[in-house]
Structure formats: C-alpha cells, structure tokens
Amino acid sequence: MFKKGRRNRSSDGSDSSAHKNEEAHLENIGESPEVFQARHEYFSRYPNGWSKIRERIREPAAEMLGTMILILFGTGVDCQVVLSGNTGVASSPKGDYLSLNFGWACGAALGVWVSGGVSGGHINPVVTLCLAVFRDFPWWKVPEYMLGQLIGAWIAALVVFANYFHAIDIVEGGRGHRSVPGTASLFSTYSLAYMPAANAFFDEFIGAFILLMVVFAISDKRNGPPPPGLVPLAIFIVILGIGAAFGMQTGYAINPARDLGPRIMTAMVGYGREVFNYRSQYWLWCPIIGSFAGGLVACFIYDVFIFLGDESFLNRPNAAARRHFAHARSAERPRPPAGFAPDEEEGPLEQV
C-alpha cells in the first residue's frame, strides 16, 4: 500500500467516523474537500485481487501480445498476397513481394511497440537468449518469455487461418485438401527446392546475425541509440531490409517462435506430420538452430569489438581490477531493446 502525503484515520475504521474526522480536519486546516483529496490521495499497487496476478504474468503476457501482432501482420500479408494470385480468390493480385516485406516489418515494429514498455519488446526467442547470455537478463525469465512468444505466435497463426481458410480451400482445390509446403508455407518457412541443407542454414544464420547486430547496437547507450519511441522504427527498417535482401530462399524466419508456433498450428488443422518431417526436420536445424547460431555469433562479435559496458561477460574485471574494486561502467539501456524507462508512479509515494 502506498500513500502520497498524510491523512488521519479513525481508530474504529468505520466510514462514518472517518467522515467526521475528515470534516473536522478540513475545518482545522481550512482546506476544501477537493484540495484535501488532491493533497492526501492514496495509491495502491494492488487495488484488487487480479492486479496481483497480473503483475506476475505481465511481462510474458506482453511478449505474447507483441508476438501475436508480429504474426497477425506477417502471416496475414502472406495469405493475402499469395492467395489473391488465384483468380478463384480475387480478380487481381493484392500485393507483391515488397508487400510481404512491408507487412512483416510493420508487424515487428508494432509488436515491439505493444510490448516494449513492459517486457522490452523481445518478441523473439533469439533476442531473449542473447540478452541472457550477454546482458545479464535474468535466466529465470527466459523460459516464460519464450513460452509467451510461442503461444502468441500459435494464437495469431490460428486466427489468420480461421480468417483465410475458405481461400485456402479454393487454392488447394477442395475443402480439407492441404499440401506441404504448398499453403503450409503461408504460415511457416520452407526453403526453395534447389537449396542444399548447408545453404539453407547459412541463409537463416545471416538474417539472424544482421537482426541481433542491430538490436545490440540500438540497445547500447554509448553507440548513438535512437530515442525509445523510435526503436520500433529501427526494427521496421532492419526487418524490411532483411526481407528485401535475404528473404527469397528460406523465407527469413530469423525467429524460432515465428516459425514453430504457426508450424504447430498447421499440424493441428490438417497439414499433419509432414510439416515437421519436411527435409529431415528442416524446422529444427534451419529456422531454430540457424537463427540461434546467427544471433549468438553476432552478439559475441559486437561485444568483442564494440560494447564497453559491464553487463557483458567479456568486460568483467580481471583479478587486478577486482583488487582495486574497479569495473566497467554500465552501457546498456533499460528494458532492451525497446529502451523504455521503468514504470514510475505519479508523484512521491510512501509505503503504508
């Protein structure tokens, strides 16, 4: 419980006695009821029972909602552009490859905006893991963040499928007909047929490498980061660029939750095991392992050559520095990558 200012309370706690004491107090100090309420207002972190539950789940829930926004825009634009190419669905195509890039970029930017002030706007397990390895992000939060991201991606993909399944039936040639990759590629990533396994892995590696290099740069307060409100714009630019330059061959998952959540959904709605068996478990070694590998290597290189803060294990003090109680200065922005300041209540608070 918190209060701002001071106020006398009745000993018996009844509403009537409290009202009498308040009236007497107002007469003594010459304050109107409005002024008294403004100066002696009480605040509580937990105004009801749900507020206590919400505080515990708020950050993973923000990751879930942010990832939902990402996948709603991303898989939504995939479905609209690809399915509208069939004359049975639309009289003319409703977009092109650039539309896909803009849709995914918008989803990423708005997803970060939705969740950034609460959880930092990771919306990607690669970002979460890299922050835990290189930036002292609490390891106990990693599983719940990743679970929130996966659930958000699964829900969003299911919503998009429910919206477009009639068009999918037309494209597939009948109700209940499903093909892999076929229309399954509207929701998860599948490499082009000519791509060897090593090249597909490398393609995802490159995309995740670029993304995490930029994420760590905009989270470094000694490297000219954008203001917190402009971080979503930076994310928009990097996702747009990755899609335009490296999106053709593997679909640029660069985010394990973005691929696995919708892939689970497709397996549940009729596409079956083939979404996992495709190219000897492609789903595992390319969009998941490839993305994690690219992100971790990018962050390691950034910290080796650029980052100066004590958050990174590469900048921990050696024995000589510890003898003099010396260490590097902090260089990480709050709540990376979004960089929004921690929550603050209005006015000074006192705990009661």
From N to C, what is the helix and strand string? Answer: EHHEHHHHHHHHHHE
Which class of secondary structure composition applies to the elements?
A: mainly alpha
- Quickly give the CATH architecture of the largest domain: Up-down Bundle
Rg, Å, rounded: 26 Å
What is the terminal separation in angstroms? 5 Å
Number of helices: 12
- Major β-sheet strand ordering: 2-1-3
Using the coordinates above, name the CATH class of the largest domain. Answer: Mainly Alpha
Number of strands: 3
Number of domains: 2
Strand content: under 5%
Q: So, the CATH homologous superfamily of the largest domain?
A: Glycerol uptake facilitator protein
Largest sheet: 3 strands, antiparallel
**How would the global form be characterised?**
globular
What would the keywords be for this entry?
mainly alpha; three-stranded antiparallel β-sheet; single chain; 59% helix; 352 residues; 12 helices; 3 strands; disordered C terminus; Glycerol uptake facilitator protein
Record the SSE blueprint.
Layout: E1 2-3, H1 15-29, H2 33-39, E2 42-43, H3 49-83, H4 97-119, H5 125-134, H6 142-172, H7 197-218, H8 231-246, H9 256-271, H10 274-277, H11 282-305, H12 319-323, E3 350-351
Antiparallel strand pairs: 1-2, 1-3
Helix pairs in contact: 3-4, 3-6, 4-8, 5-6, 5-11, 6-9, 7-8, 7-11, 9-11
